[in-house]
């Protein structure tokens, strides 16, 4: 996407792009806002953010059951990531130092490791496809974020200004083949995401994912040591089982792009 789109010109014109055959409506204002957000995140040397997520899990007996997690995300450079999570999935962490991804369950004092020497984005994609491991709001960190949305979207609309908490935000909504989605992007110098809601319409269950992103820190000084894992006393090492070696399940990133 062209990251030099003049946002304020587009906000004044409110232009649309579409195809008559499929009535595909793509609002260039929405595209410009998402482009600005994606460009900012792509230029960060490091960042941290707190993510409060609520999501549905399908129960054959009870239908959709709501769960929640609170996660702290720390990203440094192209190949370091730390995620600390507390919630219905337990208290756990993911450490990636550029050479291996380590999963640690504080509740069970167990850890497992996957050797990898790639960038953070490729690491998240690889372990999601092979092991079914999801990372909070991972799609925002993909350089192809906007292109992925546009490749799948039937419509993408800028709805105007609204508030998330006390912060003014751009409100964007869209529809894809198997989901609807909404983004709230902060109206400040950085255009960082404040909230996301996704409704998965495939199968008629309408599972929902909702997350708020708070306390963004831009280019903080994050020491390399926090991304490395040292096993606590008496911790036991476990094998992380790939999806192909267990009962199959459908896997996708938590987001609106390609599966």
UniProtKB/TrEMBL annotation:
Tree of life domain: Bacteria
Cited Gene3D superfamilies: Lipoprotein localisation LolA/LolB/LppX (2.50.20.10)
InterPro entries, per database record: DUF2092, LolA/LolB/LppX
The keyword Signal is assigned to this record: yes
Keyword terms, alphabetized: Signal
Pfam families to which the protein is assigned, alphabetical: DUF2092
Signal listed as a keyword: yes
Protein's name according to its UniProt entry: DUF2092 domain-containing protein
Organism this protein belongs to: Dinghuibacter silviterrae
Lineage: Bacteria, Pseudomonadati, Bacteroidota, Chitinophagia, Chitinophagales
């Amino acid at each position: 996407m062209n990251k030099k789109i003049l946002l304020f010109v587009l906000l004044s014109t409110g232009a649309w792009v579409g195809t008559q055959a499929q009535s595909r409506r793509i609002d260039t204002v929405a595209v410009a806002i998402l482009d600005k957000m994606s460009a900012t995140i792509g230029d960060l040397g490091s960042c941290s953010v707190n993510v409060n997520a609520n999501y549905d899990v399908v129960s054959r007996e009870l239908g959709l059951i709501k769960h929640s997690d609170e996660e702290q995300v720390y990203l440094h450079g192209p190949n370091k990531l730390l995620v600390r999570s507390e919630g219905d999935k337990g208290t756990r962490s993911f450490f990636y130092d550029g050479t291996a991804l380590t999963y640690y369950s504080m509740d069970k004092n167990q850890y497992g490791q996957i050797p990898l020497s790639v960038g953070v984005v490729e690491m998240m994609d690889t372990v999601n496809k092979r092991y079914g491991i999801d990372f909070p709001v991972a799609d925002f960190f993909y350089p192809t974020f906007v292109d992925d949305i546009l490749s799948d979207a039937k419509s993408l609309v800028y709805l105007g200004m609204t508030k998330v908490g006390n912060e003014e935000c751009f409100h964007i909504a869209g529809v894809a083949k198997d989901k609807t989605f909404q983004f709230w992007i902060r109206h400040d110098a950085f255009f960082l995401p404040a909230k996301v809601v996704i409704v998965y319409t495939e199968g008629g269950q309408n599972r929902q994912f909702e997350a708020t992103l708070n306390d963004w820190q831009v280019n903080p000084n994050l020491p390399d040591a926090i991304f490395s894992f040292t096993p606590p006393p008496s911790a036991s090492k476990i094998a992380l089982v790939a999806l192909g070696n267990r009962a199959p399940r459908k896997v996708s990133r938590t987001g609106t792009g390609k599966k």
